[in-house]
Amino acid sequence: AIMFARTSRVGAALPRLARRGVRLASTGAAPAGAAAEPVPAGLKVAAVVLPAVAAYLLVTHEPHAPVESASESAKAKGPAASYDQLAIESTKDGELVFTWVEGDYKCKVAMSKTGSVGEVEKTFAPAPKPVAAPAPAPAPVAAPEPAKPTLVVAASAQQPEEGFAQVEGGWTYTFKKDGDLWVQFYPNKGKSSPPQKWSPPAAAVEEKTPAPETAAAPAPAAASPTSSTTTAESSPETLANTILNEVKTIEANLGINARAPAGLEGFPQLGGSSLLARALTQDVYGQLVNRVTSSGFTLDQLIQSGIDHPDSSIGVYAGDDESYTVFAPLLDNVIALGHNGYGPSETHPASSQPALGNEQAFAPFVKSVTLTASRNISGLRMLPAITRGQRRAAEAALVQALGTIEGGKYYSLTSLTDADRAALAKAGVTVSRGNKFAEAAGINRDWPDSRGVWVSKGGDVVAWVNAVDHLVVQVTQKAGTVNSAFSKLQGVLGAVSASLTSQGSGFLQSDHLGYITTCPAHLGTGIGAVVELELPKVSKRTDLAAWAADFNVKMSASGSSVKVVAPPVLGQSDAAQLQGLAAGVASLVAAEGAKSS
Questions:
Q1: Residue of 521, 509, 549 lying closest to 348 (CA atoms)
Q2: Fewer CB within 10 A of the end CB, N or C, for the chain?
Q3: Cβ atoms of residues 365 and 533 within 8 Å
Q4: Are residues 292 and 326 in contact, defined by beta-carbon separation less than 8 angstroms?
Q5: What is the pTM of this model?
Q6: Which of 57-66, 98-107, 471-480, 511-520 bottoms out in mean pLDDT, i.e. has the lowest?
Q7: Cross-sheet strand order for the sheet of 180-187
Q8: pLDDT tens column, 175-207
């Protein structure tokens, strides 16, 4: 509309815009030969409202004479014609009939339910010529003009349904904003009312007509050629700005943003309840959309997985350690939501040896203990942004480091033999491409190039290379203890770290974030710990979630088994993390024993 308004044919352009908008809202049809795409809900709303906006603007802002035929032009003499007395009526067949006055012409056009608009009918009906008025008599006391009915929707007894509804004297539009219902009234004539928030009242409030004031209304002032808001001398630039302001006001009242501010054209429509969806606002997006890390990683790459998959729990994958500073306005929010309010100025505690006490008391109940650690190599990009050459360099460095551990074997995924696959299956190792979240983040690029898995001689330690992070080490012990599993994990990570140091690198970490990982959920210790217990009685309890909160862990039951999970949490050391896990396990075992006695 603004583009058309900058020309001298605003009067001809806006009706065409209105027709196109109604057809789009009604049918959503794609051009011939093109694949049909769903019309966004916001665009449908705008497309329904804009025809009325266009008609309204024609009434109040049109400075140009309408297009006429030669014969009509000969009949209509005098100054440029104006639009007035717009009325909209609906028929029993569902059509909308628009009538208005253009100078000396009465006009009428019908719009069908499908959005098609008929030809405009014009009838020449000149206003009677003014007759000279006699000498003025004393002005009588004028009766006040009855006030127009005001629709009281904010206190209506029945909750309105979302969308458009026809009411006496016009239309209402009901929409949700910030969890509340808002209702706006669009009269058949005149400007719309401001939106009102609906709330259920103690008693129903009906439509009211304000009582007329008792004071006499003043005599109407004589019309002035310069009294209208927009005159025939208005410039196209002035008219364009007026239209823009009117449309912005209506969009704001409806809670829609059909015209995105500069920099927000690519703002994604996020669904679901991921941390990304909760943390990414238009303001944050506007700050970050043009930022790039030194490796070339962008905001769109950071959030792509969460956009593609609304069922994601996190929704972001960092491409390098710089991502956490360059995109801090977003990632600080994600971290705070996922790590118990951890702030941008806090320091993660150093690693220390946990004091787990005597685990033999609950050893008979333990089915398995699993510890998983994620690490990346300093000086290299992480997998969402890594180059093919850097990924191969990471594999070479880690193969060399893992080779210092006696008794293990590395299997390259690019050269697996049938015998290798059989050996991996026997060890319970599954080799597969990353999930859909990793795929959308770009982690799976070039699969299986420069990927592999290292398995210890006993099969209880498995290390994946370039799967999600550069290195993921997992220790699994059947009927073991947290202490023994942690000791074995420390031994593997220590050997790899020493080898990387000798090669001139090391593990990527910082005082603020601990060990830096591509997924913010693994920041901190980078260690996830799981203990599975056989507890037939406790597994039937329904209060496990509340129980787990006392130990900063998560608990879930399946059949007669209970899993206790201690995820990495920024601000919590590995010692505190594993001590909470052991304490939670001990409390469950004690409850199972107490019930059995």
A1: 509
A2: C
A3: yes
A4: yes
A5: 0.59
A6: 57-66
A7: 163-167, 170-177, 180-187, 196-197
A8: 777 677 777 776 766 666 677 877 765 443 333
